[in-house]
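dude i think i finally got it to work??
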Amino acid sequence: MSAPTDTTDTPRETVHDFTTEALDWKPYVGMVDYESATPSQRAALSMTPSNKGISPYVLVLAHEPEALRERTPLFNDIMYSEGGLSRGGRELGALGASVVNRCVYCAAVHAARYIQLEKKPEVVEEIYARETKADLPAFEQALFDFAVDLTSDPSEVGGYHLYHLRNSGLSDLEILDLIHSVAIFGWANRLMHTLGEPQRKA
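look at this
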């Protein structure tokens, strides 16, 4: 496991439009220095999303190790656990939330993962072209519309939406997985917006 190389002194373009390009994320606040991190911070950093290297975002969240220690296993379980909604379906839920919240970095990550998993770049192309008005195949439309509605106006989401998802072929477990994937990105999008900005890679 490795900490990121510090590139904060290299000016790079901030990205404001949705893309499938891999992006970097530059924090507005200081990151925890892994070498001088406290034992509690190191313990929280020992498990990372996707079990990849420690990102700048995670090093920022490590300022509150107790929250990070709970957040990372929860995130991994919601997005990567076996059974229930497909990985691609969860990524589409995350993408829908990120489009509504205009989190360019999260949208880029989860659009790319959706394409990798489902081999349907045309779905992402349509979402990026028309955003919340995207016209998708029926199954993808059901997942995306639910993500949009839950993110835009959660107080209006209820029995009708669940009925529609069941009619689209989702089990109750799959519906719960979709809700979790959308909901956690309501949280993640707001943290990423507030704490930093997406940039093009060097």
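The beta strands are 23-27, 196-200.
im so relieved honestly
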